[in-house]
Design goal:
Blueprint (H helix, E strand, L loop, with lengths): L8 E11 L4 E7 L4 E3 L2 E3 L6 H13 L4 E2 L36 E6 L8 E10 L17 E7 L3 H4 L3 H16 L7
Parallel strand pairs: 1-7
Antiparallel strand pairs: 1-2, 1-4, 2-3, 2-8, 5-7, 6-7
GO molecular function, one term: hydrolase activity
Keywords: Hydrolase
Organism: Corynascus novoguineensis
Length: 184
């Protein structure tokens, strides 16, 4: 077990937003860093992780996305009503309970922090139509981001970070497991 104070941890949340009918993934082109990445950003005080993911996606892309309720294998405890026998200890991994649980997380040293910090980014699955028109003026003044839709088949050669490729593939896997059809 190790300890880090809250000041040495950065919690960010983002989405893997997919248009399943067209097999397109929403990404952002970061003009400052010259790379493609998933939309994400820091959680505000007292904000839920899912709310932060949806807000950050909207702020960075200008698109309102819809969170997906998926059957995600998670270490979260299922609700008591979902347990057949409440006298038994809940399972270590919960499956078969569709929820808005995050599909995965990425961890790395925070390159934007002035002091040593570990960044933890939690990603949630969402959907939107790639034909929707983004709203303008949703970004912070210092952000230089362009929203783009990338074909799913090109995601591994487009995203800069392999961990983000892995989270996209996990979201796709969970969507298919939950009954969504993603056209290829």
């Amino acid at each position: 077990m190790s300890f880090r104070p809250a000041s040495a941890l950065g919690m960010s949340c983002g989405t893997v937003t997919i248009d399943p009918r067209r097999a397109m993934v929403l990404v952002i082109w970061n003009n400052r860093l010259k790379l493609y990445q998933l939309p994400k950003g820091r959680r505000n005080l007292d904000e839920s992780m899912l709310a932060a993911a949806l807000r950050e996606t909207y702020e960075e892309t200008g698109l309102h996305v819809t969170p997906l309720q998926l059957d995600v294998a998670t270490r979260a405890t299922p609700p008591k009503a979902a347990l057949a026998d409440t006298s038994k200890k809940p399972p270590n991994i919960t499956e078969g309970h569709p929820s808005h649980e995050f599909v995965g997380a990425c961890f790395y040293p925070d390159p934007q922090s002035e002091t040593e910090a570990l960044k933890c980014v939690y990603f949630f699955a969402a959907t939107a139509e790639c034909t929707d028109t983004p709203e303008l003026g949703t970004q912070e003044e210092w952000e230089k981001l362009d929203a783009r839709w990338i074909p799913l088949r090109e995601i591994s050669s487009t995203l800069r970070f392999e961990a983000e490729v892995q989270v996209v593939m996990k979201a796709v896997q969970d969507m298919r497991k939950s009954g969504y059809t993603i056209e290829a």
